[in-house]
Amino acid sequence: MSLHGAGPERTEQIAAAVEAFVRKVVIPYENDPRRDHHGAPLDELVMEMRDKARAAGVLTPHILPDGGHLTQQETAIVLQKSGLSPLGPLAVNTMAPDEGNMYLLGKVGSPELKQRFLTPMVEGRVRSAFFMTEPALEGGAGSDPSMMQTTCRLDGNHWVINGRKAFITGAEGARVGIVMAKAADGPAAGGACMFLVDLPDPAIRIDHVPNTIDSSMPGGHATVTIENLRVPADQMLGEAGEGFKYAQVRLSPARLSHCMRWHGSCQRAHEIAADYANRRMAFGKHLIDHEGVGFMLAENLIDLKQAELMIQWCASVLDSGSLGTVESSITKVAVSEALMRIADRCVQVMGGTGVTDTTIVEQVFREVRAFRIYDGPTEVHKWSLAKKIRRDWKAAQSA
Predict the structure, then answer these.
(1) What is the SS3 assignment for 286?
(2) 129 pairs with which residues across the strands?
(3) Are 75 and 62 contacting, i.e. CB atoms less than 8 angstroms apart?
(4) Which Gene Ontology cellular component terms are annotated (predicted)?
(5) pLDDT tens for each residue of 213-257
(6) pLDDT at position 4
(7) Domains of the chain with CATH codes
(8) Which end of the chain is more exposed for a tag (fewer CB within 10 A), N or C?
């Protein structure tokens, strides 16, 4: 892909190339049978699509040939186009958790760590996993990272890590891992640390990969046990004790990236539902001419545009240099709820066909339902926002 200039023209070129690739090359793969036990595409399929994306010049399109990263506003436009198929982000290498891990490594990683771990990820040759979340019923960290029970201790020139992790997306089959643990002693005691590790490692055991409502991510969402994992000290990401800060560097853009990708999928689901409504006859006229159906599709357009504007607003805040924790919470809630309404209406418009795998509409519904939980449930973000309202009120009273 030949890029000319910068700014809007460059972004439009990249986005157009990604959209053309997804529509012409990726969508035909949606019925490919190479899937695992819960329907996620196998790495063989992913790498085949990535080979084609590489040849088309659209692999990892949000990271430029010189190593620079598109702005978040530019990334939003490109990632929305990649999401036009559930397979699209995998094919062009904009999928979670890799996209978020690449962003974090680009921001925090040393030149040596970037060369060893980031480069093969940008090249689309390996998958990665982010080991933060822990089993809820064991009292571990979930939406509240401060509850982290996985520990790390310095032993000579190695850190030794022990703990349990849950819902680790893509752990099975990943080649790069970012492991988060709480320092058990030393100057950073109580603070979190992040480590880069080569996978697989015998000290990281996959205990279980459950079947989940979503099925777009290779490797599923594993529960793992980490037992005496020894990591060289120079594979720490950033500084000891700063892991919670680095988590925010990753999580705010990652929430937004989810919004971007699934906005694209809901746009496609809406296209499929609108096509169905314009073809299907019932009670003497096309479904689109029945107000009950036509109005649902009209509401989809409204929600799609509002979600797009929310995404661009939050992206502009992140581009300003802010961590954007408040804005990303607001956007994650508003967009995930809007996309859920869109996906639900698409199923409803298509009736019986909408709940079958004849089209991707039912998968988009499942994926977006999971998105309302992933990267922080709606209720956790609302609770966080309510606490901010309380803090702001108290500050105003004491002013």
Answers:
(1) strand
(2) 177
(3) yes
(4) cytoplasm
(5) 999 999 999 999 999 999 999 999 999 999 989 988 888 888 999
(6) 41
(7) 8-95 (1.10.540.10), 129-237 (2.40.110.10), 244-398 (1.20.140.10)
(8) C
